[in-house]
Design a protein that fits this description.
Length: 441
């Protein structure tokens, strides 16, 4: 990557971007403080991740004081059991400055020896590596080969510069200037966004559309400590929201799940069926697409006890009442051009029951899964579904990660939208036969 003239660099892509700043143990670690300061100044939300060796050169407190979140150092975090997946997933960009020969070697070999290594392997965000080491190490064939391996995998590299190194030696290996690194970070983000936009358009783009997705299982209180719930994890709904946002939609995710917010999505957290109904129905008017992936309770206790029910009071009689069927209500309120998608998790006679629901509730598409099959649906990372079209067709999507399933469902949404005009029918049919392509970033 060619260094920018830092004064002319456009740093605007950094505004609002989530950046993980990996710092490994070299004398240049002190320069990472300046990189951090400049990233924050450009509006980025920066989380520093320091290797153990880095903490020998610069204090964790220095990074924490300047960063948007406290610096992370432990693979097994005190407040988070798996910080690497959280950090990796939420990042828009990972910058490693300085990157030592060890960190580069481990990353190239797929070794996750510490939090930084694990974050690098767990992320799908673009990665910018800024090596710094002694000239002999930088010129070593093994280091060269590792850097080339990373480049070949799409990792961006800001090559070290020539200059004074630790111990007074002079040569190639000095960490690039912080301005150069920050300018490169902005360029990588801009390029990534342009690519994501192109990718979204290339297949079933949802540019300019507003998509409301519901996710998770609602909880209906019985008393202050108990509730009626179901097995839905919310993963499929969250994956749908994430992929819809990547395809250019403005996404509102109404979720009863505790899962993290996907990137670029507005999240409304709800607990009960009534809260979910209110959140979805109040936004339905302005939505082009509504996907009801939530497992909404069909019944709720008429009254939730205000004090905990105790055994000594005998077996409680819990009177239940039906909740609003949000999907059916959406079907009734539908405005022209709106696409409404329902889900059904079934165990017996799945397709027939799902087709009944499709008609009864007035949806355009119904995504059905047989949750009695292995690795399908609730609590699994994978799913296998059949997408039923109100117009009569159906598409089977075999066992795949939930993001891939989300891609297939959104392809079907685009097909329905195109089919609104006669000319769109052919496009819809070809879209149905097209492989999903809901690949990971
Ligand atoms: N749904 C809804 N509101 C409810 C119940 C369900 O919007 N109160 C939606 C779900 O989000 C899903 C679809 O309806 O998109 C089908 O859910 P399901 O529970 O399978 O439907 P039910 O009508 O409750 O049928 P069943 O008797 O099989 O539970």
């Amino acid at each position: 990557m060619t260094p920018d003239s830092p004064e002319r660099a456009d740093l605007s892509p950094l505004a609002g971007a989530r950046v993980v700043l990996g710092v490994s143990g070299g004398i240049a670690a002190y320069k990472a403080v300046e990189v951090l300061r400049r990233l924050v100044e450009a509006g980025a939300h920066v989380v520093p991740v320091l290797t153990e060796a880095a903490t020998r050169f610069v204090g964790v407190a220095t990074f924490s004081a300047l960063a948007s979140e406290p610096a992370e150092t432990e693979l097994f975090g005190a407040h988070d059991a798996i910080p690497h997946t959280r950090l990796g997933r939420l990042a828009d960009l990972v910058v490693v400055a300085p990157a030592t020969a060890r960190v580069i070697g481990e990353y190239a070999s797929g070794i996750s020896a510490d939090l930084l290594g694990a974050t690098l392997l767990a992320t799908r965000a673009p990665v910018l590596v800024c090596p710094a080491m002694h000239t002999e190490m930088w010129e070593h064939a093994a280091v060269r080969a590792n850097v080339e391996t990373l480049r070949a995998r799409g990792v961006h590299v800001v090559a070290p510069e020539s200059g004074r190194l630790a111990g007074g030696d002079v040569g190639e290996g000095r960490l690039a200037d912080p301005e150069t690194i920050v300018a490169a970070a902005a360029r990588v983000l801009a390029a990534e966004r342009a690519r994501a936009k192109g990718r979204g358009r290339a297949r079933a783009g949802l540019d300019g559309l507003t998509v409301v997705v519901s996710a998770g299982g609602t909880r209906e209180p019985i008393d202050p400590v108990r509730y009626i719930a179901n097995r839905s994890s919310g993963r499929q709904g969250h994956a749908l929201a994430e992929v819809a946002a990547e395809r250019g939609a403005t996404v509102v995710l109404v979720t009863a799940s505790g899962l993290e917010a996907p990137r670029g999505v507005t999240v409304v957290r709800v607990e009960t069926a009534a809260e979910l109904a209110e959140a979805v129905l109040s936004r339905s008017e302005g939505a082009d697409v509504i996907v009801m992936a939530a497992a909404v309770a069909d019944f709720r206790p008429v009254r939730a006890a205000t004090s905990k029910l105790a055994k000594r009071d005998g077996i409680p009689e819990i009177e239940l009442e039906p909740t609003v069927d949000v999907l059916a209500e959406l079907g009734k309120r539908r405005r022209p051009g709106q696409v409404i998608v329902g889900f059904a998790a079934e165990t017996d006679d799945a397709l027939a029951r799902a087709r009944e629901k499709l008609v009864l509730k007035g949806a355009d598409l119904l995504v059905v899964n047989d949750v009695s099959a292995p690795n399908v649906g609730f609590g699994h990372e994978t799913n296998a579904v059949t997408v039923l079209y109100a117009s009569g067709g159906e598409v089977e999507v075999p066992l795949a990660p939930k993001r891939t399933i989300a891609g297939a469902v959104l392809d079907a949404v685009s097909a329905v939208r195109r089919a609104e005009t006669p000319a769109g029918l052919d496009a819809a049919n070809s879209a149905r036969s097209r492989p999903d392509g809901g690949e990971r970033r």
